Amino acid sequence: xxxSIVTSPQGIIGNKVxxxxxxxxxxxxxxxxxxxPDYKQITWMASVAAMWAPxxxxxxxxxxxxxxxxFYGLLGAGVNGTKTVTAVxxxxxxxxxxxxxxxxxxxxxxTFGGGLKIFIMxxxxxxxxxxxxxxxxxxxxYYRPTANAVVGEEQTYMSRYVFANVGLNFLVF
Length: 173
Hints:
Elements: H1 4-7, H2 12-22, E1 41-52, E2 59-62, E3 67-89, E4 97-119, E5 124-139, E6 155-170
Antiparallel strand pairs: 1-3, 2-3, 3-4, 4-5, 5-6
C-alpha cells in the first residue's frame, strides 16, 4: 500500500489536494495523482534464479548437534505485475481525496541477492534472505497535469526494490 509520505495531509497527495482547492486549473477533473517516477506498485512476481553456495557442503557450527550454516548468492530473471494508484479530489472523503486503480502492466525484471541458511536438522532450516529486483520503466519527467498540459518525451529509468525474507525451509529428499 502507499506510505504516509504519499497519502498524509502533508504528503504528496495532500499537498496536491490543497493546491487543487486553491486553483482548480492545477488539477483538471480533480486529478491529484502524484506524477512522480517509481510510483507504480508491484502486485505479483515470478522469478527463476540460480543459487550458488560458495562453500562446498556446510559450515559446521556445533559438533554435537546437527546445526550447520550455509551462505548463498542468487541471480535470476522473471516478470512482475505493476499497477498505478490514481487519486481524485473528493471533499466527502476523510482526507479530501479517494484512491482508485489506474493502469496495470507486466514488466520483465532482473533479481539478485544473498542469504544464510541455518540447518537445524537434516530436513529443516531457518532462512534469511535479501533479494533485489530491478526493471526498466518509462516516465515523462516534463509532463505537468494542468489544463494546458505540457507533454514532453518519456525517458527510461531503472526501478529498484529490495525485499528481506525470513522463513523456514523444509527439505524433501
